[in-house]
Amino acid sequence: MATFGKQVSTGGPAAKPAFGKKSAPSPMGRAAPAAREQLSPQALAFLQSERSRAPEPAPKPGAPRAASIPAYAASSSAVNPYAGQPVWGRRIIALLIDSLIVGLPVFFFFGLGIFGAAAAAPTDNAAFIAVLTFSVILGVCSIIYSVSMEASKKQATWGKLAVGAIVTDTSGGKPTLGAVILRNTAGRFCSNVIPFYIGYFIGLGRADRRCIHDLIAGTMVRKRAADGGPASYGDVFA
Prior knowledge:
Layout: E1 21-22, E2 38-39, H1 41-53, H2 71-79, E3 83-86, H3 89-120, H4 126-150, H5 158-163, E4 165-169, H6 177-193, H7 198-201, H8 212-217, E5 219-224
Antiparallel strand pairs: 1-2, 3-5, 4-5
Helix pairs in contact: 3-4, 4-6
């Protein structure tokens, strides 16, 4: 009797193949050995579909497990080949560089006049008004500088470019203009007003190195991988 998945040939003209397998007729008039039988295309397709449905076998006790890859690391190389691992140390250096790039020109162009006028006409509120005015001008200039640079093709300020870092979204792609504006306005304000700069140091305890303003805007700061490949975890504190 023919069975599922096989074709049995008796050598006679009346033999009918069964579903799934075929075998060449034997010169002795008997069915060919099973070792010589070949699966038909229909049977191969059936077996392949069944194997794909079968769950992966559980790992044996004591067997090494495959290293898990964080979602942000797995997706970044597919979205942006120049986005490496998230960084924290170099972004702090970039912040200091950007503060000098913006702060020095603002002080010489506006600060000298503001504080000079306050010193020439000293009143009870003159110093407070001078500091407040200078802070507002410095803040506006910093926002314009950061947004224009991070929303451009460079995705980084001059400070970040100097240390090899770029701003991305959580998938490693280019952040939207709205995300960049939110990052450098409300997000940066929250990071600066929290005492002892905890808004920045919170990124040191996170695997994705995101600070308060990154969490608010949905952004990340990553190493710029010049060779297009992912950076190693050893570069986080570079």
